[in-house]
Structures are given as C-alpha cells and as structure tokens.
Amino acid sequence: MTENIGVLGKKPSQRTGVERVVNAPLPTVYGKFQAVGYLDHDRGDEQVALVYGDIGTDQVLTRLHSECLTGDAFGSQHCECGDQLASALRAVAAEGAGVVVYLRGHEGRGIGLLAKLRAMALQAEGLDTVEANLALGLPVDARDYGVAAGILQDLGVESVRLMSNNPRKRDALQRHGIQVTEQVPLLIPPCESNITYLRTKRERLDHNLPHLDAVAHWS
C-alpha cells in the first residue's frame, strides 16, 4: 500500500507545541473557574489551566503547579504541594482574576510517580531529596516549563505575578517569553514530617523560604 504523503512527496509535518482542546466551566470549593484543556504535542501530556475571572494580559496572578499525586490527592505531609495548590486557588479567587496552570508530567520534579516513591523510600533511610534522586541515577529536577509558557501565551498572558518560592521557575518562564513582574511568596507552615524536605529546597535548590527560620530548633 502506498504511504500517504503530502505536497512534493514529503510526509505531513507533525504538530508541535500546545493545542487548546476544550474550555469547560468548573465550579470548585474555591470558586467558579474555567478549566481550559490542552494537549502537549511534544510530550503527549494532557494539561489544564484553571482560569478565574477576566485575567487580562499583564501582571496576571499565576501559579505553575507541578503535579503531585501524593500531596494534591492524598494529603501527604512529606511535602507542602497540596497546601500550596489550595492556597493558590484561594488567592486567585480572592484576587478576582488569575490562572493556575496544573502541569502534568512534573511528578517528582519530572522523574515520575514510581521513581518519586523510590526516592521517598531512600529519604526514609536518611537521604535528602537531592541525594535520593542522584542515588537512583536520576536528575535532581527534570521539569521543563515551555508548555506552561505556551499555555499562558495562548491565554493572552504577557506578564505574571508568579506565586512561587522557586527562582528557577521564574527564570524559566522569562526564558520562554513570559515576563515575571513579581514573585509572590507561597509559604506554607512546616510540620515535622516535611521540615527536612523544605530545608533541602532552601539549602540545595535555592528556594526562598524565610519562614523556616522560626522552626530552626527542629532537628
């Protein structure tokens, strides 16, 4: 059977980047959002942006939230991800407008769910999050924010007030053409189960977490 080819005998080019697929109302406990669904043609991931109100184009209150099944769905106290997601959604609703981009494929800073659980098992034996990933032969942080920038650009966003404690996330967005006019802290009170994880974020991954000074007495 002859293969279907395009003009001048070339195969049709494969799509790249993000494509908006659907926009649906999503009432939540935080308020009424619009769930805008995207397909990432580069990685095959399905992505979603939760949009609240009339966001405009400039200085849009924005959170880029990396998928975390254990924290977001199960309420894990190993990290602060679930609380950060809830706080971001509340902040956007209180602001009256904003975006939370929920980034699938970012589980465990991009290493995947099972690898993250293996890393957590090593952390239970005394390694920190960085050491555990390296012990497994995995990158410390494999996340890419190009898809997030593409989603924001599709929504017409040119600049953001970014809810994040991670300067690398800010720098990545700016490299992809989204201006960050302000980095808004998203500080969650620590607990004894996540204090080591949070200290590692601050000391080894450059996260801005000044509130940890108040619990310096915790071992």
From TrEMBL:
Zn(2+) binds at C68, C79, C81. Keywords: GTP-binding, Hydrolase, Metal-binding, Nucleotide-binding, Riboflavin biosynthesis, Zinc. It catalyses: GTP + 4 H2O = 2,5-diamino-6-hydroxy-4-(5-phosphoribosylamino)-pyrimidine + formate + 2 phosphate + 3 H(+). The keyword Metal-binding applies. Pfam families: GTP_cyclohydro2 (PF00925). The keyword GTP-binding applies. One of its GO terms (molecular function) is GTP cyclohydrolase II activity. CDD domains: GTP_cyclohydro2. The active site is at D141 (proton acceptor), R143 (nucleophile). It is an enzyme of class 3 (hydrolase). InterPro entries: GTP_cyclohydro_II (IPR032677), RibA (IPR000926), RibA-like_sf (IPR036144). Pathway: Cofactor biosynthesis; riboflavin biosynthesis; 5-amino-6-(D-ribitylamino)uracil from GTP: step 1/4. Residues 19-185 form the GTP cyclohydrolase II domain. Its cofactor is Zn(2+). Its EC number is 3.5.4.25. It comes from the Bacteria. Binds 1 zinc ion per subunit. GTP binds at R63, L64, H65, S66, E67, Q84, E107, G108, R109, T129, S164, K169. Belongs to the GTP cyclohydrolase II family. Catalyzes the conversion of GTP to 2,5-diamino-6-ribosylamino-4(3H)-pyrimidinone 5'-phosphate (DARP), formate and pyrophosphate. NCBIfam families: PRK00393.1 (NF001591), ribA (TIGR00505). This is GTP cyclohydrolase-2. It comes from Streptomyces incanus. The gene is ribA.
